[in-house]
Design brief:
67% of the residues lie in helices and 6% in strands. Strands 1-7-6 form a three-stranded antiparallel sheet. The longest helix is centred in the first third of the chain and has 32 residues. It is globular, with a radius of gyration of 21 Å.
């Protein structure tokens, strides 16, 4: 995926004070939405991830990043971003068509995951001694829920295609974010640091450095472009009114109080990448519990999940503040990732498990134990 890593106010903010912009309802809503999405993504990605006794065929396919892949990802993201910038008019139709399908499916999967999380509030690890229900009523109820969720996903996707409304865009973006966080895995903090270092360079270059080569901010240019609605191929054939252009589902946007066409936006990558790290922190919590090693390192009153979400919120607020202070789009990861990494690694240091968290040894032993329990 190409993370559009920027924070921008899509209006003319010259007459507005920085403080007024930060406390604007739209900006606060965007930050709350991003923090909630990181939290839900982390829970969904680790839901049943270390469940002893979970059936092997029920396991989801995940892609665990290696160090080499972490190094290559910023290069692939740069090539993809440059392709969109140079040949947007050529690739926009295929890109949007694929995005519509993927976003709709991802939103359906998001509803299923939310149902799983809400059905087990407060449940930290699945209980292997409790057999899963296979009754006819349970199966029927699940089938009905899936049908309702599928209908809802289709409805949201159709409304987005027809109207281009920002609420539907954000809903589908949330589905894509959770899908990516649940599909990708960071095995340890060492690989995460390698990935984040490369993406920080990618982020800073395409927000700041690209101006000197392309005479425009490539990141913001691509993130703010609207593509022709693919459904217009049908409307033209039927002599129907044209549908509005669509923003690419790689951002989340919220309207501000400064006008009907004024929005604040955040790149989806600014949510997905931190959520990958927070999901790893959540799995570390679960690993300590599974291995009965939580007391070994001392609780210190906070879980790794809680520290990760709080650190992300602080980094995001800082990115928003810097965007207003400099009155320009900022590479959000420049502020989010250092805050996130520092907060979680310092928490690991205080608990005496920094080396373990860095190398992922506890995660490996917990995964091995869970896998052995499924045999």
């Amino acid at each position: 995926f190409t993370p559009d890593l920027c924070v921008a106010a899509m209006d003319d903010p010259s007459a507005l004070s920085s403080l007024a912009w930060l406390v604007d309802a739209g900006t606060l809503a965007l930050m709350a939405f991003a923090v909630a999405l990181v939290y839900v993504s982390a829970l969904s990605a680790s839901s049943g991830d270390l469940a002893v006794g979970k059936e092997e065929e029920a396991e989801e396919q995940v892609f665990k990043l290696s160090t080499k892949q972490a190094i290559l990802m910023p290069l692939v993201a740069s090539a993809s971003l440059l392709l969109m910038y140079l040949f947007f008019d050529v690739v926009q139709f295929v890109y949007m068509l694929l995005s519509i399908v993927l976003a709709g499916v991802s939103f359906y999967l998001l509803l299923l995951r939310l149902n799983d999380v809400l059905s087990n509030p407060g449940q930290r690890l699945p209980n292997p001694s409790t057999p899963s229900s296979t009754s006819t009523s349970t199966s029927t109820s699940l089938t009905v829920k899936k049908a309702v969720f599928a209908a809802a996903a289709v409805a949201v996707t159709v409304v987005w295609v027809v109207t281009g409304h920002w609420v539907c865009l954000d809903a589908l973006g949330a589905g894509l974010a959770v899908f990516m966080v649940c599909t990708l895995r960071l095995p340890n903090a060492k690989v995460a640091t390698t990935l984040f270092a490369g993406l920080l360079l990618y982020d800073v270059w395409w927000v700041f450095g690209s101006k000197h080569v392309f005479e425009s901010n490539v990141m913001v240019e691509v993130a703010s472009k609207s593509a022709e609605n693919p459904a217009n191929v049908v409307t033209r054939q039927l002599s129907l009114p044209s549908l509005p252009p669509l923003r690419m589902p790689a951002i989340v946007v919220f309207p501000t109080a400064w006008g009907s066409q004024s929005f604040t936006m955040l790149g989806l990558g600014d949510i997905v990448l931190p959520a990958l790290f927070v999901a790893m922190a959540r799995r570390f919590d679960l690993s300590l519990e599974l291995l009965n090693e939580a007391d070994l390192y001392g609780k210190q009153g906070r879980s790794f999940l809680g520290v990760g979400v709080a650190s992300f919120a602080f980094g995001l607020f800082t990115a928003m503040a810097m965007s207003r202070l400099f009155d320009a789009a900022q590479p959000a990861l420049l502020y989010i990732l250092p805050a996130l990494m520092f907060g979680v690694l310092m928490h690991a240091h205080r608990r005496g498990c920094l080396q373990d968290f860095w190398l992922g040894q506890t995660l490996e032993r917990a995964e091995a134990k869970a896998s052995h329990g499924r045999v």
